[in-house]
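task queued by scheduler; priority normal; single chain, no ligands, no partner chains; default sampling; output format set to structure tokens
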Amino acid sequence: MQRQSKYENEQHSLAESLSAAQRKVTDERKRVTELGTQLKTAKTQVEESRRELNDYKEKASRILQVRTSVGNIWKS
């Protein structure tokens, strides 16, 4: 009888440990999913910023070209 009680206690302890481990795995999976979403969002924002920077550079280049052309016209 004592042996059976010992095994039942051990089984109960193992079941609790398994449940805790499963909860931890579930929590970690959720965290990985959230971090994946954050990563995708950050990548999208970086790409948008790159596009904006390239647009800005193109506009600045055009402005400088016009400025140079106008300056050359005035010098003539």
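post-processing summary
- Residues 2-75 form the longest helix (74 residues).
- Residues 7 and 27 are 30 Å apart (CA to CA).
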